[in-house]
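FORM 7B: Structural annotation worksheet

SECTION A. Query
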Amino acid sequence: MNKNRKMKRKIAASVAVGMSVMMGVTPAFAANGTSNSEVYKEETVYVNAKASGKTDKVTVSNWLKNSGSVSGDLEDESTLSDIKNVKGDEKYTSDGDKLTWATDGEDIYYQGTTDKKLPVSVKLNYYLDGKQIEVKSTFDAREKGISAVYQEFSLINTVSVAENIFMGKLLYNNLGPIPRADWKKMHEETQKILDSLGVINIKPETIVGRLSVAQKQMVEIAKALSNDLKVLIMDEPTASLSDNEIDNMFKIVKDLRAKGISIIYVSHRLEELPIICDRISVYRDGHYIKTLNIEDAPKSVIIENMVGKNMTQTEQVKCYTDEILLEAKNFSSGKKFQNINITLHKGEILGIAGLAGAGRTEFVRALFGADPKDSGQVFIEGKEVQIHSPRDAKKAGLGFITEDRKEEGLILSMNLHTNVGMAILDQLKKGLGLDLKKECVLMDEYIKSLSIKCRDGNQKAKALSGGNQQKVVIAKWLATKPKVLIMDEPTRGIDIGSKNQIYALMNDLAKQGIGIIMISSELPEVLQVANNIVVFAAGKITGSLENKDLTQDILLDYATSQKAV
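SECTION B. Predicted structure
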């Protein structure tokens, strides 16, 4: 892959998916073409394989270790494709296979891809209870005792909770010549599972589409627990849960572990890991990085391995003015929320905190015209506007990043260009059709500015990670050039690096004068980003606070109060 390396590459290994192989260390070259003993090159080959063992993608990382003695150009040779600097902002020029990096005594860490013959052999073997197994499908996995709770729900909204739980494994009675589905027994078994989870607000006969995001998450967990479990995979299981529900979740996890069930727990909430985990494996950009015992993995170490460097935490910026951008007066909708009044200033980030079921999402959906309200007025820049639908809201200058990006934020089967273009069809009109070239150029700009990791704008949204899907949703609404941007759980289920990018983006938008209303169930997030905070409890505002010397305990006091302000 790299011509200036003179080492033999005969390595054979039995590896797992996402295997990495260290290829060694050799001298690199200074600009004069002579070997410099103080600059070395370390190369790692990452092989992403499918479950079958077939190679999916080969990525090569090259690390030019500069002791600081070389401050001019640094030359290297490479036949890699899609070369990019992944840890710095140093640029390179190419002349055939020769790369010339502009450095100032810094290390150069770059990556590229290759279709060359692999320097390793790949073989994947899976073992369960000490026996080699082959998993051909999700049904096969379930039969072997492996179940999963996915971050993106796999529920059918049009049928009941019990039907979702027993989908593909219906219970039958043997009364009469023809076996019939025993719905009574399935309802009873569903209720037992829900009771074991401590769920009191979900019934077996409830249609899933009527449930909240948090309730759907509990149904997913119940569905997994309905199987004979040996291994449970949990992907961001607490992303939509309240603090009380999270505590109950941890109890469930600990009970399962005590019963001998092994759990693979995927989470971006680093504070959760020491509570329930024994070991932590860190992945970055689809590559396995390191496995650490929990006692050797303080938060700072985990973050450093996740992002590849020490990350500077994005801090709150205060750039809002006295100019009122939006006012919502006397908003009410039955028992969901009552007499809500908020004021948003130009360039302000207004956080909305509260426990699950407090009415936060219901309020902003009504504000945006997605759900009806009983009463309420909206003023934009001092002028009353009538908002009866999302179209009215968009016309008035509002954008809404929903908490459910899969169901409401994106059309997953469409490509990124189309997803972004759908929000600005009026801007793309060209004759009797659409200016698709303009649409593509716009999306390509957002791919670059938002650091969306994708093949290109023609890639389908469903192929992206949750964090990158969220960036596409943000891009869609930024394309509308909103005055006010509502962000409901904007960092749900995404990694800490992407979170920090979104926080930085919010600060940049605020500096441009855009007003942001942010709902988050993560109190540290609200305290980190918001200028001012409104606290909801039981459909009422119980606190309207300047974010100065506030703590989580203070916010929780207001979130559990029954006294409206």
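SECTION C. Observations
DSSP finds 17 helices and 29 strands in the chain. The chain has four domains: 19-113, 129-277, 312-397+482-565, 410-481.

SECTION D. Sign-off
Analyst initials: ____
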